[in-house]
Amino acid sequence: MTIPTRHSWDRRRFLKACPAVFTVPSLAASPRQTDIRIEQIRHSYQDYKYRAPYMFGGSKVDRVTLLNVDCVVQTPDGRRAKGFGSMPMGNIWSFPSKVLSYDQTLAAMKALAVRVEKVTNGYKDYGHPIDINVALEPAYLKAAAEVTAQQKLPESIPKLCTLVTASPFDAAIHDAFGKIHKRNVYETYGPDLLPNDLSRYLGPAYKGLWLNQFILTKPKPELPLYHSVGASDPLTAAELKHHINDGLPETLPEWIRYNGITHLKIKLNGDDLASDVSRVLEIDRVTTETQAKRQVTTWFYSLDFNERCPNVEYLLSFIRQVKEASPGGFARIQYVEQPTARDLQANRQNVMFQVSKIVPVVIDESLTGLDALLLARDMGYTGAALKACKGQTQAMLLAAAGQKLKMFLCVQDLTCPGASLIQSAGIASHVPGVAGIEANGREYVPAANKGWEERFPGIFHITDGQMRTGNLTGSGLGAV
Q: What digits encode the pLDDT tens for the residues 185-197?
């Protein structure tokens, strides 16, 4: 029986408005006293300019729009709490297009955010945030198709873009759930609050397994920070064409000294083999010289092609040439991220078995759900990038699946500042096996971190290459 509210929606009317969409069984007719219902949810935006352009995947980004979401939830006995979520909209990454401009894809995401808010406000079942998100995702995808049709877009809004748009809504609900129970969100994934085992979300192979078996209730005290080297970032002072003069580093050696960097994420273009090889070798040379002066002997690289390699043969040639030219540099490569096209089904020939024998190969842009993870594994991928921008719910479920499948796990961001970085750091510090976290908002959009650094100095002020995550123990997601 649905408890009457001032809202006119109940579950049957909601499902009727989204016909033939849901496949998840209905939540219990009599809600548990620990469950929540969404009372109100609303979104807003913040815009920031980058201090310097960030080049990846053949595109340059110089600005960001943050999608912020506030929500109010209530338990059956009338207790209420507020939640907050935030995420960069990241349209260049989540909705890449050769025919639509930056402003057009951003406008499509904003139109989708309006519909996601309406759909989420209309959902009046009680439940755990994971059940709520799993139930709502099909309606979000339906909303994306409606925006595509309404705006007569020449390309459909991708599922990845839909996940990014919906992610702060999901985060706000998780945040409120933790706050209503006065627990950190990572303490809310046990059977006392989440009544279903993982088979409900991941299939019969997970029968009898519970999400909290794969999630740490207390955060790791620290994690190595992966510093991003954009494809056009100047490496040395000789390459600087325009000085920013804002007090922050402007070259790679300056960043290494400033943050004590020991982990570098190298963005590569993937369409010029000689240039990609040369870029890695030059970064290795500059880094080696800088680390020698610091008397540091151990550091690591990850390589991100942002799906630009034309085929796996390109990647194998790249690896061979780097290894021949710099055995030491090659030995520092911890993993390779999404080397070829994100549409795995349409590019089944790009299997990664030969590469993954040499170094872990991680799925990122392709990872939009369990089906994509399993397909990637069948194609030789051995790792998965977990991201807050794809949703807290998905990050948790795929963290469990990745561990059961014994895959290499890492946490990447979407140039996340402020609350979104805290959520990302929370994921990285609570998932076993994650050995580091990418956090490049401090490089490209530090203005969006203002007000956060003083409250979370260990997250935003890095001095020895380590992000301090041990204090991420506040209620909800811990940001506000």
A: 999 999 999 999 9
Residue 12 pLDDT more than 50?
no
pLDDT at 155 over 60: yes
Residues 6+ apart with CB under 8 A from 439: 225, 226, 413, 416, 421, 424, 425, 459, 467
For residues 4 and 256, the model is more confident at 256
> Coil, helix or strand for 401?
helix
Backbone dihedral region of 138: left (phi > 0), alpha (psi from -120 to 50 degrees) or beta?
alpha
Greater pLDDT, 361 or 28: 361
CB 377 within 8 A of CB 350: no
How far, rounded to the nearest angstrom, does the alpha carbon of residue 196 sit from its chain's CA centroid?
Answer: 25
Indicate if 83 and 221 belong to the same structural domain: no
CA distance 331 to 323: 8
Tokens encoding 24? 């998840």
Does residue 202 belong to any structural domain of this protein?
no
Q: Which two tokens stand for residue 290?
A: 């800088």
Provide the CATH number for the domain around residue 147: 3.30.390.10
Domain that holds residue 336: 211-468
**Cβ–Cβ under 8 Å, residues 235 and 256:** no
Cα angle for residues 359, 373, 369 (degrees, 5° grid)? 140
pLDDT of residue 29 exceeding 70, the answer is no
